[in-house]
């Protein structure tokens, strides 16, 4: 999943990705606590998913991306790095919404179904690889790396769409005709 591009594959460090997957698991536990807090229990579940997912994404991106985007913006040099950080921030929003939806499905179900466990496992493995893209902080992101990242982002959005569709099919009340 890292990429098929040799220069990026050389920078793909499996131990680093395993630590990121562990951190993503801890993040899911944090989202569970945010979704079950007393303040959020009075809202509809779809509103809770959106609120917690957006807030989680904001907190993750604020520190990580703001300084770099600000430096690039002030220099008026709209390089590929600026577009990379924009895409990465948007992918983080998708990942956080997806995580909030998965945790909500687990909380509503009360037990872990096989499909839900598979989706959570895929999330834990997929999004750390997608969100933390290997490139040199000092150099620009070349076009090959950007194309590969866009393909990976499309895969992440496709996975999130599948989770949304699964949530709607299982947990949304359909009106009777």
UniProtKB/TrEMBL annotation:
Organism: Theileria orientalis
Transport keyword on record: no
Transmembrane segments: 82-104, 116-134, 146-167
Membrane topology: Multi-pass membrane protein
Predominant location: membrane
GO cellular component: endoplasmic reticulum membrane; plasma membrane
Record keywords, A-Z: Cell membrane, Endoplasmic reticulum, Membrane, Transmembrane, Transmembrane helix
Domain of life of the native organism: Eukaryota
Family to which the UniProt record says this protein belongs: Belongs to the TMEM147 family.
InterPro entries, per the entry: TMEM147
Listed name of the protein: BOS complex subunit TMEM147
